[in-house]
């Protein structure tokens, strides 16, 4: 069997302008092995601390409801707390003087917001055989669409913050802790300690 001839440049590397370059290709093993962790094509491992996931809905020009922005510092709420009005419930909707109330349970999701979140309609909207407390956006949206068909639901939800931040600390490590522990693990692996 005859060998297949190779091009003359195979097996060599192009000349480099760097005098310290010994012609050895640099391979970032960590980035090749863990593309997700190093912001590769799949995903990024952590949300920036200054960005809170939540209401990013445009307020469609609702004249009676101010737009609340989650990037402002929000007061953190202890478990089982309740309150009225802004920032966690609307005010002056649909009538001036209507103040909605809110309550949280004890469950906190991995982002640090309450999973158990309830909103209560104001006295002026309470009717027999109609729900007065809602625990989800879809249920509240159905109530709004059935009782106020001309309402801009996006503007309604933009007028307050749906996701309430918890005052409890989560048992999850921060991004910096995860990165440190990962690098420490690889260091121990490199030393042969693991």
Automatic annotation (TrEMBL):
Domain DUF7081 as annotated: residue spans: 77-166
Record's protein name: DUF7081 domain-containing protein
Region named Disordered: 44-81
One matching Pfam family: DUF7081
């Amino acid at each position: 069997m005859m060998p297949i001839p190779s091009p003359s440049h195979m097996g060599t590397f192009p000349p480099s302008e760097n005098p310290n370059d010994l012609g050895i290709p640099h391979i970032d093993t960590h980035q090749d092995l863990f593309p997700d962790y190093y912001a590769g094509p799949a995903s990024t491992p952590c949300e920036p601390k200054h960005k809170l996931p939540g209401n990013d809905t445009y307020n469609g020009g609702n004249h009676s409801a101010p737009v609340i922005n989650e990037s402002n510092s929000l007061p953190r709420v202890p478990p089982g707390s309740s309150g009225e009005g802004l920032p966690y419930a609307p005010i002056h909707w649909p009538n001036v003087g209507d103040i909605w109330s809110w309550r949280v349970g004890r469950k906190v999701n991995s982002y640090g917001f309450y999973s158990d979140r309830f909103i209560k309609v104001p006295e002026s909207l309470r009717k027999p055989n109609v729900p007065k407390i809602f625990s989800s956006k879809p249920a509240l949206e159905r109530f709004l669409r059935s009782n106020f068909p001309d309402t801009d639901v996006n503007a309604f939800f933009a007028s307050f913050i749906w996701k309430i931040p918890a005052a409890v600390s989560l048992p999850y490590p921060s991004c910096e802790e995860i990165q440190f522990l990962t690098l420490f693990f690889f260091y121990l692996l490199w030393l042969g300690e693991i």
